[in-house]
Amino acid sequence: MALQATPYKVSLDISDVDRGVYESVKVTMARHPSETPLRLVARILAYGMFYHEHLAFGRGLSDSDEPALWQKNLMGEIEHWIDVGQPDPERMIKASRRGPQLSVLVYGNARIWAEKALPKVSHLKNISILALPEDAHAVLATLIDRNMHWGLMISDGILYVSDGDAQTEVRLQTLM
User: Fold this and answer.
1) Are 11 and 48 contacting, i.e. CB atoms less than 8 angstroms apart?
2) Distance between CA atoms of 62 and 76, rounded to whole angstroms?
3) How many whole angstroms separate alpha carbon 157 and alpha carbon 51?
4) Domains in the chain, ordered, with CATH?
5) 85, 66 Cβ separation under 8 angstroms
6) Helix/strand/coil (H, E, C) string of the chain?
7) Which of 101, 50, 57, 54 is nearest to 73 (CA)?
8) pLDDT digit string (tens) for 58-94?
9) pLDDT along the chain (176 residues), means of 10
10) Strands 55-57 and 21-31
11) Across the strands, what pairs with 148?
């Protein structure tokens, strides 16, 4: 018998000063049995950072042809492909051809990954790559719960995450 995905109910209060986006959203997301808390946090943060009314979670680990998140227009065409983790350069090149905008939120040892991957995708014009700092990311992974309410504020490229009790500052590094 196959293991089932675990549903997580996430409420996000998004205040993105940089883009002028102010929304309170509730999403239910599925956590694949093999998904780590770090990847789950990265998907939640990506959802808040790139929020758009048409942004949706992909099937992720259960379908390698889909991103972690994507934004599609009303015709079903991909407008923004968003991956999390450390995708290989071939995947990023293929994804860059599928829509006008590609974003990658890298976590883990971003420096080593970047040394190998960035030279192979430096020619892409529609790509944005940001890296999560490992220490802040690890702190946020300890806050994961099946029912969560986080406040996300983005100002001057810095992400502030509050869970009601504490606030974590996430200074994203722009890799590309």
Assistant:
1) no
2) 21
3) 15
4) 6-174 (3.10.640.10)
5) no
6) CCCCCEEEEEEEEEEECCCCEEEEEEEEEEECCCCCHHHHHHHHHHHHHCCCCCEEECCHHHCCCCCCEEEECCCCCEEEEEEECCCCHHHHHHHHHHCCEEEEEECCCHHHHHHHHHHHHCCCCCEEEEECCHHHHHHHHCCCCCEEEEEEEEECCEEEEECCCCEEEEECEECC
7) 54
8) 876 555 788 999 999 999 999 999 999 999 999 999 9
9) 83 97 95 92 97 90 79 95 96 95 96 96 96 96 95 95 92 95
10) unpaired
11) 10
Where do we find the tokens 């974003």?
103
Residue 153 CA neighbour count, 13 Å, CB half: 7
Indicate the length of the chain as a whole number.
Answer: 176
Residues 6 or more apart from 90 whose CB is under 8 A from it? none
In the sheet with 21-31, reading across from the earlier edge strand, the strands are 21-31, 6-16, 147-155, 158-162, 167-171
- The Cα–Cα gap between 69 and 113 comes to 21
Q: What is the pLDDT of residues 111-121, one digit of tens each?
A: 999 999 999 99
Q: How far apart are CA 57 and CA 79, in angstroms?
A: 14
Q: How far apart are CA 29 and CA 43, in angstroms?
A: 9
CB distance 56 to 82 below 8 Å: no
